Amino acid sequence: MDMNTWRNASLAVTAAAVLALTTACGQEQGTETPNGQAVGAANPAASGGGYGSEAGYGSADGGGGEAKPAGQLAIWDSEDLGEVLTDSAGFTLYRFDKDSAKPPKSNCEGDCAKAWPIVAADGATAAPGVDPSLIGEVTRADGTKQLTVDGWPMYRYAKDTKAGDANGQGVGGTWYAAAPDGGKAAPGEGGGDGGQEPAGGGEEGAEPADLAGLSVRKDPKLGDIVVDRDGMTVYRFTKDSAWPMKSACTDECLEKWPVVEPVDKNDTEGILKKGFVTFDRPDGIQQQTIDCWPIYTFAGDKAPGDTNGQGVGGTWYAVSPDGKPVGAPK
């Protein structure tokens, strides 16, 4: 094959790949927004999109900045979270569910590390009463040594602005305040749901264990809507976009609207498979999409069949099997 033939063939393959991705993620929908993020490993560096963009611990501009050491670790006894590990200045330390402890590995890079500044390992000392052997370090891809506690990499949160803040707790369903032993801080008495009865609207139906990762439920008011494996209603946010793929729900928003984690295509029933891809969010969280639209559940839904998130703010709507927002204004 001569050089020109090889070059033409390569261009054709590249063009076909781009066309396939464009078709899969619905560029024809006319939902492009500036500075959006594309799908998968080829995602360009995002501009921040609200992830850690508010001034906080990391630096004057909230951009994360240079990794700062923790010094003498301490324990904060939180009424809501139980015993929480802090640095010497009283700032809460966090762990990320997408990381691993055995072996220690951080999966928070790029924009994620701006929202969640890493804790430098240098000079860290175990909190009083905690086994010093739990303190360790992991070398990141850029050579930085990050503090670990029982193997778990430690972070701060850019939006914690003072000692005792724990604004990162539960963000995305993957970020949690660290306990002194590196585990997740356990809610103390008075935390959690406070023993409230579930909100109304639930229906009798299939046991959650019998459901696929995503399936369809016929709601008496909304018709066919998507539910997760626990039978909880799945929602779309009209401020998001599918091409470029982008979520406008960040930080505190994710506490009310947790992302739907990736689901295998074969673990679905009745769901559109076109554009059924994983969204690698700038905050390091992976999110499932339908027709390339990011999908969520609602913290205000307490039982299978609840649809308390429907129409909230005129921007949140249950999702139809083909990825459309049910009942949204045309």
Automatic annotation (TrEMBL):
Biased composition (Low complexity): 178-187
Keyword Magnesium: no
Signal peptide bounds: 1-26
Protein's UniProt keywords contain Lipoprotein: yes
Biased composition (Gly residues): 188-203
InterPro entries: Lipoprotein_repeat, SCO0930-like
Keyword tags: Lipoprotein, Signal
Renumbered residue ranges of the record's region Disordered: 178-215, 307-330
Top-level taxon in the UniProt lineage: Bacteria
Any single Pfam family the record assigns to this protein: Lipoprotein_15
Protein name per Swiss-Prot or TrEMBL: SCO0930 family lipoprotein
Species this protein is from: Streptomyces sanyensis
